[in-house]
Structure to design on (166 residues):
């Protein structure tokens, strides 16, 4: 009996992971609703009997006062039945779980991470390009050779290094 309980918990976790993946694809490719722009699905918790699913989401970008997040949450709740009907065949289930959307509690951490990633991206764009490694050394097969030893080639194993004669 304990094995069966572990299997159902594992099944719920697998279904939750698949729901998260499919919802991410649906939101990015199928729904052209401007109210859902910037919505990222973070996690899905599915009940053991796979009848209910709690879907966490965050809204990337600036959202002063959380107004956009509330609008996106209401829109997702309205679309839940349509999303559910599209999910069932994709998941290979006769009945997809009932979906309940909620703003993820880790939203602030994700917003800070998003801001840091944008800042790093801007710094990388503004940074000067890395200097090119010596192309003549690369062509001669001497990458990493210092100027003092650039005239030498690597000797085969067991033989001493010798100067390169033209």
């Amino acid at each position: 009996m304990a094995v069966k309980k572990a299997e159902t918990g594992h099944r719920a976790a697998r279904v939750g992971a698949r729901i998260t993946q499919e919802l991410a694809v649906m939101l990015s490719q199928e729904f052209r609703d401007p109210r859902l722009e910037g919505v990222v699905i973070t996690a899905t918790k599915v009940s053991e009997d796979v009848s209910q699913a709690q879907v966490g989401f965050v809204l990337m970008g600036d959202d002063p006062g959380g107004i956009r997040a509330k609008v996106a949450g209401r829109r997702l709740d309205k679309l839940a039945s349509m999303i559910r009907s599209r999910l069932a065949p994709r998941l290979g289930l006769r009945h997809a779980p009932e979906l309940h959307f909620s703003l993820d509690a880790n939203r602030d951490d994700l917003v800070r991470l998003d801001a840091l990633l944008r800042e790093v991206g801007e710094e990388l764009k503004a940074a000067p390009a890395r200097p090119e490694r010596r192309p003549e050394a690369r062509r001669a097969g001497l990458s990493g050779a210092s100027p003092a030893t650039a005239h030498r080639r690597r000797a085969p194993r067991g033989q001493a290094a010798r100067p390169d004669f033209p």
Notes: The first strand starts at residue 39 and ends at 46.
